[in-house]
């Protein structure tokens, strides 16, 4: 019996929740955000999200010597608002009616799912990962990139990548505008930064320096750096430097394969190799960044959200599937995978980046 386009759509609808969860497990940053409970779905009422950045404490302290002192109160207006946008990305693929007509039973349905939807979703995932790590994801340039040398364009205006390759002093003096806040006019709105000249000589020392610098920043209740992702050579240099002192950590859950991603421990953080960080790309203009990049993040400070409410219309924006739509004058049925997701941090100073780690 031939498989109809609607049967394929129904199979896709049933599989998409697992596929969406697989992506958040497959990418370490989103996996950590989900674990911390910072992934919100369908909560915004408009096209963007505003979030508060606290640049100083909200009050004042009065020392009491005689008991007659007037206690200084009031509110210290030290909060600024950042803005983040959720880009709307649609991955469309077409399935020939001839393939559906020739399909016969569950085995052929599985083959079609493998050839079309699963390949499409895998390609979509890889593009998003490349965008996050390097800023060069084909067709997904509106999604956030961590690469401070690159820009992303979620709403028609280019925005700087989240983590800049410069000292905190240089960033405070003339750094980028990140999430709508200019670094020179926003106290503390900088990321920590270190450069490795030779991994064998000072690699782990510079990594520790950046790690502890970031941990000292921001709210004390937000914990430590718990996630690091680096380019292949930086990661391999770290393993080589460890010699036999190796601890393996893996991302696991009920739906993702246990070997979906494997990493190493660095102090209290999980350190993952991310081949989507392509330091040979022209998107990295900083010469030290082209010698290796390791992003260090405090996942409590990161937040993800999606837009959309009606699954049958605009979708809920979490790798949701729409279709089939018959393509006029062609024997083709179109399906769409819809992602309407934003990602941001509300404390840049609790994050860090280390460059030069790919140098032996």
Describe this structure in words.
- This protein has 360 residues and is an alpha+beta fold.
- It has a single domain, classed as phage-related protein like fold, CATH 3.90.1690.
- It is 28% helix and 26% strand.
- The chain has seven helices and 18 strands.
- It has a seven-stranded mixed β-sheet, with helices on both faces. Strands 1, 4, 15, 16 and 17 form a five-stranded mixed β-sheet that branches. Strands 2-3 form a two-stranded antiparallel ribbon.
- A hairpin with a 5-residue loop joins strand 16 and strand 17.
- Helix 1 packs parallel to helix 4 and helix 6 crosses helix 7.
- It is globular, with a radius of gyration of 23 Å.
- The termini are far apart.
- About 3% of the residues have low confidence.
Largest sheet: 7 strands, mixed
Could you tell me the number of beta strands? 18
Low-confidence runs of at least 5 consecutive residues: 251-260
Helix and strand pattern: HHEEEEHHEEHEEEHEHEEEEEEEE
What strand line-up does the widest sheet have?
9-18-14-10-13-12-11
Query: Cα-atom Rg, whole angstroms?
Result: 23 Å
Count of helical regions? 7
Helix and strand content put the structural class at alpha+beta
Number of discrete domains: 1
Per CATH, which architecture? Alpha-Beta Complex
The proportion of strand residues reads 25-35%
What percent of residues adopt helix (DSSP H or I)?
25-40%
Question: Do you know the CATH topology?
Answer: phage-related protein like fold
* Silhouette: globular
Span between termini = 60 Å
CATH class descriptor name: Alpha Beta
Mean pLDDT: 83
